[in-house]
Amino acid sequence: MSGKPGLLPVADAKARLAALTSPIKQMEMLPLAQAAGRVLARPVTARLTQPPFDASAMDGYAIRAVDAPEIGNELRVIGTASAGHAFDGTVGRGQAVRIFTGAPVPDGADTILIQEDAERLEGDRIRTTFAVIAGRHIRPRGQDFAEGEDVLPAGTLLDFSTLTLAAATNNAQVEVYRKPLVAILATGDELVQPGAAPGPAQIVASNTFGVAALVRDNGGEVLDLGIVPDNKAQIEKAISAARVAGADVLVTIGGASVGDHDLVQGVLKSVGMELDFWRISMRPGKPLMVGSLGDMQVLGLPGNPVASLVCSLLFLEPTLRKLAHLPERWREAKAVSAHTLAANDQRQDFLRARLSQDAGGGLVAESYGKQDSSMMKILARSDCLIIRPPHAPELPAGDVCPVILLRP
Q1: How far apart are CA 315 and CA 293, in angstroms?
Q2: Residue 282, SS3?
Q3: pLDDT exceeding 90 applies to what percent of the chain?
Q4: pLDDT at residue 408 above 90?
Q5: Of 72, 113, 117, 71, whose CA–CA distance to 91 is shortest?
Q6: Contact predicate 389/321, CB 8 Å
Q7: What residues form DSSP beta bridges with 293?
Q8: Is the dihedral of CA 214, 220, 225, 228 positive or negative?
């Protein structure tokens, strides 16, 4: 059901926003040290073969398998090979080279007798205490990758393991997709920055900090346009600054409704914004606005702090991840309700709740009794949002309910 006339269901709103969003095509070269969390725009091609030689996988002795077919064979140690220092010679009949992990296997040797299987004798001799097999404990040349091989395809997220691989291929830099730039504009005569002394009818602006953190956590960069009063000319100037900077998304906070002091939507339309939809059948967060201004997407968030952050989680996060070529972040899970939840009306509710585990390890969601959307402390203490679909009947305690994890 769609709820009240003119209110768009949450699922429809998410689908329409996704359809408006296209992944960023622009690329940039970055040194490896700055590439964590970025997505490859082109494959990483190996510039060398790894290992570059047959290498010992263990500490021990490089020998010929034919010289130690059984326990008790004696061999003469003729030299040493260690990582970075190859043995310059050939292993002949009845000979062995002391070798350490990572060292090149000397010519003539075809197996490694690990040091635990060798008995040291007087002088330069050893005796085998275990039968060897040709090829054992040797990492063959090119076992990991070969020069010219595409080891990481385009679209790969660069994390601790993929960055390590990229470095091993002898690439000092990689080509990645540009980060989405998100301009954040807070509006309202009533707002002051944290640390300032609010006037008698003013409040501290807090939403920007949470929205900016979510942007950065989802691969974006932030252009903070600050707080603009309820003034059409100043709002238009801030919108122009976002366009000049090349923002991919303009996020406005507050002022998107159509009251006498809600100017943002009107100003955006006056400078050419195409409004796609406005007002969602959800609580908190009904006055959400989505549109486009040229190539810049516009997402108008409610001024209410909790509504602003819930909408950011549901709509801004997936938009950013698609722009940045990042994989979808799965936040939905199943839990059982710790207590009975009342029947719902025509809007989809998102109830702030704590999570715990039952004896079997399952999730138990305990919603806070008071869900006023101005109460930020409750959101900060919550682990999840319980989803209550439109017109959902009463949910008995112990029944399953879908949740959105706030910290997956």
Answers
A1: 18
A2: strand
A3: 88
A4: no
A5: 113
A6: no
A7: 296
A8: negative
Q: Rounded CA gap, 56 and 84, in Å? A: 12
Positive or negative: CA dihedral 37, 41, 46, 50: positive
Degrees (nearest 5) of the Cα angle 401, 407, 408?
Answer: 70
Q: Tell me the β-bridge partners of 8.
A: 280
Q: What percent of the chain has pLDDT over 70?
A: 97
* CB 401 within 8 Å of CB 386: yes
Predicted confidence (pLDDT) at residue 218 exceeds the cutoff of 90: yes
Q: Which one-letter amino acid corresponds to residue 176?
A: V
**Which residues 6+ apart lie within 8 Å of 54 measured at CB?**
104, 105, 138, 139, 140, 141
In one-letter notation, the amino acid at residue 379 is L
**Residue among 55, 267, 36, 270 at smallest CA distance from 159:** 36
Q: Which of 134-148, 247-261, 384-398 has the lowest mean pLDDT?
A: 247-261
Q: Is the pLDDT of residue 128 over 80?
A: yes
C-alpha span between 183 and 102 (Å, rounded): 50
Instruction: Specify which residues 280 forms β-bridges with.
Output: 8
- The CA distance from 375 to 304, in Å, is 9
Q: Pick from 228, 214, 145: which is nearest to 185 by CA?
A: 228
State residue 259's pLDDT score: 57
Bridge partners for 227 per DSSP: 186
The identity of residue 156, as a single letter, is T
Neighbour count for residue 101 (Cβ, 10 Å): 15
| Contact present, 152 and 39 (Cβ < 8 Å) | no
Question: Position of tokens 């047959």?
Answer: 54
Question: pLDDT tens across 223-279, in order?
Answer: 999 999 999 999 999 999 999 999 999 999 987 665 555 789 999 999 999 999 989
Query: What tokens does 328 get?
Result: 């979808």
**Tally of helices (H runs) and strands (E runs) in the chain:** 8, 26
296 touches 247 (CB < 8 A)? yes
Phi, psi of 142 (to 5 degrees): 80, 10
Give the Å distances, CA to CA, from 354 to 82, 216, 341, 359: 56, 25, 14, 17
